[in-house]
Amino acid sequence: MSEAAAAKIAVLAVGNVLMQDDAVGPYVLAELVSRFEMPSQVRIEDLGTPGLDLHPHLMDLDAAVFIDAIQSTDAPGTVRRLDRGQLLAAAPAQRTGGHDPALREALLALEFNGRAPKEIFLIGIVPAATSYVTGLTEPVREAVEQAVAMVVDTLRDLGHAPRRRPEALPVDNWWEHAAPSSRNETRL
User: What's this model's pTM, rounded to 2 decimal places?
Assistant: First the structure.
């Protein structure tokens, strides 16, 4: 059995790396992988902008930890941890685009089939801006460390604590080099 097949916990980053703070999920994931080794039961994935296609990533897991930008009236850079009850209690939000994650809908469909994760968490970071530019705004960049710590604490609470690397691996956020930056904005 492959390591990925044996994984029963998934850490899943969601976000469009070309839309400023919407990329916070991939940024947090890159920092997490740079600094920590995951137990073999933990699968790490950057899902990009999956839209309605979350089912295969969640099916038959014991637990899932999502990292994503969230809509909130809290100040930009605020980091919140939401659990299954909080995610399902919220009224369905209006989907404004094809890349909007449909986490609540995927959970309900998988629960109907008896294949939903037993536990699910969302580490959400409030964005300051989501323009078509690469790079995080300052308040969201400052929140990355707190979000990484929250993911590590959540995995520890689930009984699968990551191990800190003796030396962090280099982080290559390729999208910062391959796309327009805030200094050279492109409007779509």
Answer: 0.84
Residue 20 amino acid letter: Q
pLDDT in tens, 45-102: 998 887 667 767 777 889 999 999 998 899 999 999 998 888 777 665 554 444 445 6
Nearest residue to 87 via CA among 124, 47, 40, 33: 124
d(C-alpha 118, C-alpha 62), whole Å: 5
CA-CA distance, 11 to 127, in Å (whole number)? 20
| Rg of the chain in Å (alpha carbons) | 16
In angstroms, the CA 141 to CA 40 distance is 29
Q: Which top CATH class is 3-178?
A: alpha beta
Can you give the residue ranges of every domain in the chain? 3-178
